[in-house]
User: Fold this.
Amino acid sequence: MNQLVVQNWNLNSLYEGGSRSIQLAKLISRIVDQLYIVNDEIRVHKMAIGKQNLQPLLSIVQQFQLILSEWEEVDEFLLCSYSENVNNSSAISLIEKNDNLKVEIDTLKVKVSQLLASLPEDAWNEFINLKEIQPISFYLENKKRYL
Assistant:
């Protein structure tokens, strides 16, 4: 019987150099930078966000989604890289760094949730009906109920 599917993934096709990839390092660095930026935006806009100014909140939510998506990509890649070679010290080091990033992302998630929960009802209704928010409105509505 002929084997039609290669048993091993070519991780270099995702990030040339595997866990030592310059592209991967840049992505991790961008995630760190974005975490700093979004945390700063939350601090700056915490009191200013209201019905008349939903754009900063929209930006914060969109940036948070991007951070989380990119972090998940890095995390899954690193786990695959480690699975491919459990002695890969570079992958192990990056997994530890990525675990620390996850803590920061979870903290940011709490801040974003608190920010959403603090919106007055009329501002919340306007926000949840924004075209850009519609794809995640169900999730946000449920999240707000439990805050």
